[in-house]
Request: fold
Amino acid sequence: MKCPSCENLNQDGANFCINCGREFFNRENYHHEKYSIFYWFADKADGIPRSHRSAEPKFRNIFSRVFRRHTDTEAERLFIVGTALTTPKIEEVVDTWPKPWLFSRVFLVAMIAYIGLFIGVNVFRNINFIPGLIIVGAFAVPFTTLIFFWEMNAPQNIAIYKIVYVVFIGGIIALLAALVFYDIFGRNNINPVTIGISEELAKVIAVIFFVRNTRYRYVLNGLLIGAAIGAGFAAFETAGYALRALLTGSFQALYSTILFRSIFAPGGHVAWAALTGAAVCIVQGEKNFRFNMLLSPKFLSIFSLVVAMHALWDSTIPGIFPFGQIFLMIFSWVLVILMIRFGLKEITEKKWGVRHIPLEPSPS
Reply:
């Protein structure tokens, strides 16, 4: 099958071109929606008329590839992006809404692995499966959410191996920094507010470590780097709580800890760190990082909002669980979607600037 845009040869039956990413027309999968609630929400949020949008901001479109068949070649193409040879130039970056699907396959593989480990522990009574059960259970949802952010990174300038590196190193940096802030506040002053400040500021420090130069200067890069750090932070924290639950002698407590923390993981550390990571890139722009950038109202407003959500999440207000957490998850992802839209608009503006740079007059 030849792509009508780039004339690249693809496998017969492929849904998308592996070279340029163009979606092939399939009458069975084609639906036209003139109106949608999300269009209305997006219009109100950023004031761009529907007729001027370069991409349809409908959730149906964002996840339209999840339930379609994909070839190994399509997956391989995703995994090779971000290298020196496979990172597109800014004028080649697609500024429309990405349509991620790989994250769903990662989640499926993680669930199969978790079920296998669960059978090993509960059916065969083999305790050697317990460490794997805790590790896979702790990482499954945070890493799946991270892959979603990786697929939404339109510049495609960060390789998957780099993301794995950020998950482990960034997650450890953030955890250790949080312990330092706990000591600064004092053990007697630990409360939901100081916990929120300590942990979110720790994740910001980890983000700065990776985006302090101008290599990762896009807002979508900040979202991805922050999500990677948040995923590492959340997974390591969940593994620790799961081990504590197991040490009480209750396997039920172990499973409950993994279950509830996995359900709420996407709207917690991962989303919060993604937002503050984007905020760092917003104030940094094309410059090398300076700490006085953190005093910018743009950063402080996003950081304060994230800290407030974290504090409410950990609040001991009677009856807040789980309804408060569900509301905070939804609110966090509304902000994430808006930040993704902001990042795509940034790509469009940069592409426009590149295309309209006046040519230097040739020397006579």
